[in-house]
Amino acid sequence: MFLSVRAAALGAVAALALVLGLSRPVAAQDSLYGKQPPPGSAFVRVINGLNRPLQARLPDGTQLRATAEDAGRVTPFQLVRDASRPLRLVLSGGREQTLDIPLKPEAYITLVVTGEGAQGYQIASAADGVMFNKARARLSFHNLMPNCAATLQLAEGNAAVFRDIGFGAAAWRDLNPVSTGLAAPCGNLAPAQITLPRLEPGTRTSLWLLPAGNASRLILTTDAIAGWN
């Protein structure tokens, strides 16, 4: 009897040690890299290219709200736990429309609502990988100017950062954390210009080229991620 109780106790201790041993690498990884998303998941955000507010509802009921003002056009990234199947997204504003959006696991996915026509909302999708060089800053460039293959370049010297980015498309690269002036030539329009502040290593930032009457403009947003459990 004593031996069986002692064996059971030792077994429980061993099982507890195994659980604790397995949890340490996960805790260490979270401490080193920040909280890690579940395997097979993705992050999704919406950028509103319309001139009125827009809402996007995810299958779990989460609402992504994007305003028509530049400060609120871009929603935070929202975790989608299963990116192996299309995301059923309900867009509403002037009309309500249900769309199935293909996803890519382990990616940051930007859904760009570029316009609205007789057939409904027009959406472009761009996916960036989760991992990047954390010693640098991640910069994405999104072109929302119709009929324009845009280039993002240094304001002085004209060296290209991104070249020939089509309407609704995007590109990414890792940059050293420096401050510099940028310009975005687009057809015959005067280049939109912006001063890129010194970006912190390990952060993600987005530049958006948008219409501004008969011209274009650049807006800068820091990529935000909504919390999850």
Automatic annotation (TrEMBL):
Biological process annotations from GO? alginic acid biosynthetic process
In which pathway is this protein known to take part? Glycan biosynthesis; alginate biosynthesis
What keyword terms does UniProt attach to this protein? Alginate biosynthesis, Periplasm, Signal
Which stretch is the leader sequence? 1-28
Q: Which GO terms describe its cellular component?
A: periplasmic space
InterPro entries per record? AlgF
Name where it mostly resides.
Answer: periplasm
Q: Where in the cell is it found?
A: Periplasm
Homology family: Belongs to the AlgF family.
Q: What is this protein called?
A: Alginate biosynthesis protein AlgF
Organism of origin is Teichococcus deserti
